[in-house]
Design brief:
It is built from five helices and 16 strands. By secondary structure, the chain is mainly β. The strands form four sheets. Strands 1-15-14-5-16 form a five-stranded mixed β-sheet. The chain has a four-stranded antiparallel β-sheet with strand order 9-10-6-13, with helices on one face. It is elongated and about 90 Å long. The two termini are 26 Å apart.
Length: 285
């Protein structure tokens, strides 16, 4: 048989070593509420640790120096969520597969063209219902004229960020048809990346319910991650040979291998490692 449990430890009050229960020194350890793990049954006697890390938001830069007064432009943003496939159908923020667009015109005589364009793009995104895209001036904007485009979700990815000039097609009635000529292509500075070991990550990914996570009821406060805290993940496999009362053929022994994940609050990691090693051959990698 094979199943998995997950725990969140905000305290080590209920984490004990075998000697605390009179089972002898360096034999194993207890996690919460008397769940005992014998060192001899931990597969390869190895426990694997993954440190927490911060997430990153998508970030692009767009150089606005080539914009010219007296012309019309369109800012085009093609955005999707991680796991979405680009297609001609509707998806996050996209209608019929078309990039999100903000049309703007730079009036003749505009002195600071870059600042004017940035303001119009930000205003268009806001009023168009795309307030989760942030537009900002890069440091020293007055000299580099560079606009920053930021995502606000770890799962938000940009496939294209560009500005095109809107040019009427000659011969069309009232100039009703236009041609889009790309003049500026944005450059990706930072790719979106989910965090690991944060309260947001654990809450999103925690596999509920299990007996140890829920105690047959809703999660308790001491079982849930603390907002703003970071957690290291410890993972190990546990192998136990059961008796002959299992569901296999009569007289056949069953080997049970379970997987266990423990998220330990970052300031408790060092002490937690000391406890689970218990002076034995258990190694943490």
């Amino acid at each position: 048989m094979n199943f998995q449990t997950e725990r969140v430890l905000n305290s080590l009050d209920r984490v004990k070593v075998s000697n605390d229960a009179g089972l002898g020194s360096n034999k194993g350890f207890f996690l919460d509420y008397g769940c005992y793990f014998d060192n001899e049954n931990i597969v390869d006697k190895k426990i694997y640790k993954t440190a927490p890390k911060d997430g990153k938001y998508e970030k692009w830069e767009v150089d606005l120096t080539s914009l010219v007064a007296g012309k019309q432009y369109v800012f085009q943003l093609d955005v999707r969520l991680v796991g979405e496939v680009r297609s001609d159908f509707n998806r996050y923020g996209i209608f019929n597969g078309k990039p999100y667009r903000v049309n703007f015109e730079v009036p003749a005589g505009t002195e600071d063209i870059a600042k004017y364009a940035l303001g119009k793009i930000a205003e268009g995104l806001k009023h168009g219902g795309f307030s989760d895209i942030k537009i900002a001036e890069k440091a020293s904007f007055s000299t580099n004229k560079t606009m920053e485009v930021h995502g606000t979700m770890y799962s938000m990815v940009f496939d294209k960020v560009e500005i095109a000039e809107i040019v009427p097609i000659l011969g069309q009635v009232s100039g009703s048809d236009f041609e889009y000529k790309p003049v500026i292509s944005g450059t990706k500075q930072q790719a979106a990346e989910e965090p690991f070991g944060t309260a947001w990550f654990i809450t999103k990914n925690l596999r509920l319910p299990t007996e140890y996570n829920t105690r047959f009821m809703s999660p308790n406060a001491d079982e849930m991650p603390i907002d703003g805290a970071k957690y290291a993940q410890f993972f190990f496999r546990y192998r136990v040979t059961r008796d002959i009362t299992g569901t296999d053929a009569v007289g056949d022994e069953i080997t049970s291998i379970t997987e266990h994940i423990v998220y330990v609050k970052q300031d408790l990691v060092s002490n937690f490692e000391t406890i689970i090693k218990s002076g034995s051959a258990i190694t943490v990698e």
